[in-house]
Structures are given as structure tokens and as C-alpha cells.
Amino acid sequence: AICGHGCKYGECMGPNKCKCFPGFTGKTCNQDLNECGLKPRPCEHRCMNTHGSYKCYCLNGYMLMPDGTCASSRTCAMVNCQYGCEEVKGEVQCLCPSGGLQLGPDGRTCIDIDECSSGKAVCSYNRRCVNTFGSYYCKCQLGYELKYVSGHYDCVDVNECVTNMHRCNLHAECLNTEGSFKCKCKQGYRGSGFNC
User: What confidence category does residue 125 fall into, taking pLDDT thresholds of 50, 70 and 90?
Assistant: First the structure.
């Protein structure tokens, strides 16, 4: 089976037919499925969509059970957690719905962890990290674009000279470089290449 556009988060099952991994959708399985919008809803109270998955959390005064349901808890109501709580060995602890969030100094509200600046993010060498609330994603470095090449997605150098994204002078030639470009004045002209 050949899938010309590739199957980003899935596998090729027939000519241009992708079977997406759980949590992903789209013709090339490149879109995150918002499980929170599905019917029946996967969470009893509140749902937070994450990349390829989702997290359940409960309203204040309830605690999250292992099956995703919310059980009433008077002890939880007293603690006043932002995203519900759980009881561990008789102690009530507030929860954060994502590993990219941590409990704030008050022990009740969740604050974002910037994985990009803390070094927790893992992006390949030609990608840059973009922080989001509760998570992060990897984006191609400037001068590169995401393309499907030989069986997988990769960040490929943009040839600014071909795409006319350069600002070279009319009397200059454009020279593509890895991730960028240079302008060089043609013979008989001199200057920066942007001005000749």
C-alpha cells in the first residue's frame, strides 16, 4: 500500500487510505482528535484535550475515580481545588490534568510548566519548541518547512530563491543556504545584495 501524502500518526492500509492511531484523525492522521467533543463524553464532569489523548478532572467538591467518574467528597470541597482532587492514604491532594502543569504555591491551583525553557522538552535538532498551557509542541526552525519525505515527516530546508521569498536586488542573484539564503550582486554591480 502506498500513501502519497503519508500517514503522520497512523499506518497506510491501502492506496492513500490511512488507519489512524487512537487519538488522531484526518485523511493523513495529522490532526489531533478532540475526545472531549465526542458523544458520549469520555469524562463525567470536565474534560481537557491533550495531544493524542485527553484528561478528566472533576468540579470542586468531587474527586476523580480510577474509571474517570467523579465521586462526591466533603473533604475535597473543604480543600477547594481548581481541578478536583484525589485521596491518597487518607490525605487529600489537589490534581492537575496534565504533566505540563504543576500545583502552585497555594496547593490548589495549577500553573503551567514551560517545558521549552526548563529543558524538559525533546525536539529534534531542526525543530524549535513552542510552549502551550499544560504542554508543548515542536515546530520546524525558521527557514524549514514540514514535508513528507521517504516514509516520514521531516523539516526540510525552504529554498527561498525558488519560492521568491527573498528580497534580493533586481541586479543580484539569490543563493540558497541551509535554513536561509544570501544575496550577491551580479558582475558589474556592488553592494550588500539587497542594494546593488
Answer: confident
